[in-house]
Amino acid sequence: MSRPAPLPSLTALRAFEAAARTLSFSEAGREMNVSHAAVAQSVRKLEAELGRPLLRRAGRGLALTADGALLARGVTEGFDRIRATLEAFEEEDAARPVRVTLTPNFAVGFLIPRLGGFRRAHPEVQLDIDPSARVVDLAEERMDLAIRYGAGGWPGVESRLLVPSPRIITAAPSLIAGREVRRYEDLAAFPWLQEQGTEEMTRWLAEKGVTGLHGVGGAYLPGYMIHPALLDGQGVALSGKVFVQADLDAGRLVKLFEDEDPDGRLGYHIVRRPGPERPGVQAFTRWLRREAARPGGAGTMALSGRT
């Protein structure tokens, strides 16, 4: 199959289309925000590339040649189709809900208690919330935003810290019952609680150089079940500290280990694909940042579990 002939540059075709429609290099230049000389030069280059005249002088203006009129119809139809397709994209984007994936505990502990305020402020924005801890390809799944825990700087996406929070290992006082927990290896004496579909605590321990633990068993639970099980003394769990601070202050939980974070990079990040954002996505992102920045805004997250 033969390859199609290469097309002239889009700049040259745009210049010709504007000049053919207005029959004036000056009008076309004003429309394109360039000089009339730049438009004329682009058209002359296009004529040289095609080997035929497209426009000629006619009094104080321009006139199309026969070849110019033929090309003008084709270019105009092509641009009209492109414009119609782009407008359809815009209409589709305007109607499409803002899709957000975030961990279940962040959804329950931070988002849901505040979401009514966003709905009242932006009734025109529809949201599609995916409370999941799974790894998501934002482009493939057409997600607008993700809220994920870590230090940020992930490849291929843009991230901005929303809620700072180191990770912490906690347990109920009844589970510890006076036993000393000074080394990471000491955690082997306790059952563990981990969210279904993840190996977060196992990875955390591996980062500390500890493997082969959990000999006394544990449980994989849905994210929303981890906090009640943790308070009930059913195991130890890894959490974002911001989720368990109230329980630590009240004595319902005790801290066993806490990650060091000298650079203040650990926490929950807003993650997005590079490129422009739809108005609804911008509105939701601004609202999230305002909520997190309010006095006590990030400190009133009262649910623990997975980071």
Order of SSEs, N→C?
A: HHHEEHEHEEEEHEHEHEHEEH
Quickly name the level 1 CATH class of the largest domain. Alpha Beta
CATH topology heading of the largest domain: D-Maltodextrin-Binding Protein, domain 2
The whole-number mean of residue pLDDT values reads 87
Computed CA radius of gyration, to the nearest angstrom: 30 Å
Count of individual beta strands: 12
User: How many domains comprise the coordinates?
Assistant: 2
Largest sheet: 5 strands, mixed
**First CA to last CA: what distance?**
55 Å
Low-confidence stretches are 303-307
Question: Largest sheet, order of strands side by side?
Answer: 4-3-5-12-6
Walk me through the topology.
Elements: H1 10-22, H2 25-32, H3 36-50, E1 55-58, E2 61-64, H4 66-95, E3 98-102, H5 104-121, E4 127-131, E5 145-150, E6 158-164, E7 167-171, H6 173-176, E8 192-195, H7 200-207, E9 218-221, H8 223-231, E10 237-240, H9 241-250, E11 254-258, E12 267-272, H10 279-293
Helix pairs in contact: 1-2, 1-3, 1-4, 2-3
Q: What labels would you give this structure?
A:
single chain, 307 residues, alpha/beta, Arc Repressor Mutant, subunit A, D-Maltodextrin-Binding Protein, domain 2, 2 domains, five-stranded mixed β-sheet, three-stranded antiparallel β-sheet, 12 strands, 42% helix, 19% strand, elongated, disordered C terminus
In short:
The protein has 307 residues and is of the alpha/beta class. The protein has helices at 10-22, 25-32, 36-50, 66-95, 104-121, 173-176, 200-207, 223-231, 241-250, 279-293, and strands at 55-58, 61-64, 98-102, 127-131, 145-150, 158-164, 167-171, 192-195, 218-221, 237-240, 254-258, 267-272.
